[in-house]
Design goal:
198 residues; Vanillyl-alcohol Oxidase, Chain A, domain 3; 2 domains; 4-stranded antiparallel sheet; 7 helices; 4 strands; 12% strand
Amino acid sequence: MRDRFLVHVCLAGDSGMVDALTALITERTADRDCPLALAPPSAADDDVHGGYAGLPDLDDRLFLRKTGHCARCLDAGQGLLMFLPVVPFEGASIVRAADLIRAALHGRTAEPGVTMNVLGPDAVDHVVTLGFPVGDPLAVRDAHRTLDRLHRSFAAEGFQPYRPDIDRPVRQPPGGTTDPEDGPSRAARTAYTIDHVY
């Protein structure tokens, strides 16, 4: 179902702390007013559990499932573009980001994979992956046009990518500063550009 999703929550630290946090989450999600519910262990299979436990994946099983190709043969069989914006950690912004992703799809571009990672109390990064067959010129063109549309629409909302690519530098949001010496903007450009890999 489109309105449901699975969240993996990492609880780390002292075993007593992990037990206490687990009990607290279990208690809170049991509340009838809570929009979340605990998923059974079967919601994620052995490959996923193994990945979170740090077990080696020598056969690239997870990568193969996500892309349809092993890591060594991906470039020959599948094109892959990535869009990596940071979005405020608030419901309206997360919903807006999902709407922008759907609206950006162009032509024959398939619905992308989207993974969100909570960076802290204020921000969520999005890993948006656009796959396409490398032997299909129209699919290649449409995927690149989708990526262009993603950059434009997210920049218009002030949602900047944390890893811009060489063809798409960080854009200033509407009404944002254009002063190259502005502290936050300058710090972000210095930390995240191609020349200064963060």
